[in-house]
C-alpha cells in the first residue's frame, strides 16, 4: 500500500518543459475516442482519481489504469469545479465537431443563406466551448452569456456576409477565404465577451505549489489574449491552405463529377500559464512581496482553453 500512497496522480506523465511532452499531453486529453464513453464510465474514472488523491486506490489497480483514469478525468471534467462538462464543449469533441463545421463553412460559402447558417452554427458551437472551458473561478451571468453570444454571432455574420458580397467580383480563391476572416473576427469578440468577468474582476493566481496569492486582471487579459491568438492560429492552416487545394482540385474532371463529395472531402482534410510577479498590478505585487519577499517570482493561473 505504501507504493500506492506515494503515487502522485496529478504529477505530469510527460516532461512539460519539452515540446514533445506538452504535445503528448494535449493529444492525450483531446483524444476524440473518449467522447464515446458513457457518463458512468467517466464517473468511475473521477472516483479513481479522487481516491488516488486521497492516498489510496482499489487493490490491484495498475499504474496504467490510474493514468487512463486521469486522462478521462482531464478530458471530461472542469479543472476548477470538478463538474462533468457538457459533451459538445469538451476539448475531446473539438476534432470531430470542429472538422465537420469547418468543412461545411468552407464548402458552402457561395450563397448568403448558406454563409449565415454555417456561421451561426460555428459561433453557437464556439460560444458553448468558450463557456464550458472558462475559468470557473470567475462566474458569468446568463445576461452576460447572452450578450457575448449575440455580439460574437452578429460580428461573424456581418463580416462573412459583408465580405461575401464584396468579393463577388474578386478572384474565386479570395471568396473561399471569407469564412476564415469571419471566424477570426468573431473569436476576437466571442472569447473576451464570454469571459468578461475575468477581465473585470481578475482571476486567481497562485505560487508554484498552488497556494493562492490573490486575483489579477492583468493575468486574465494575458490568458484571454493568448487564447484568442491560439484559436485564430489553429484555424489558419485548414481555412487558408485547404481552399487553395480545393481550388486546384476542382479543375479536374473527376472532381467535377463528384461535387456531392466535396463537402465530406473538406471535412476529412480539414490550460496553465505563468506570469512574472513584476507584471502584476501594483497592489497585488506589493502584497505578494510583503508576505513572501523575493521567494515568489512567478504566479500561475488557469487561462482556460
UniProtKB/TrEMBL annotation:
Note the topology in the membrane.
Multi-pass membrane protein
Per the record, the major location class is: mitochondrion
Task: State whether keyword rRNA processing applies.
Answer: no
Q: Which GO terms describe its cellular component?
A: mitochondrial inner membrane
Range of residues in the leader sequence: none
One example of the protein's molecular function in GO is: monoatomic ion transmembrane transporter activity
Q: Which UniProt keywords apply?
A: Amino-acid transport, Membrane, Mitochondrion, Transmembrane, Transmembrane helix, Transport
Q: Where are the transmembrane segments?
A: 228-246
* Any single GO BP term: serine import into mitochondrion
Q: Where in the cell is it found?
A: Mitochondrion membrane
**InterPro entries recorded for this chain?**
Mtc
- Record family assignment: Belongs to the sideroflexin family.
* Name of this chain's protein: Sidoreflexin
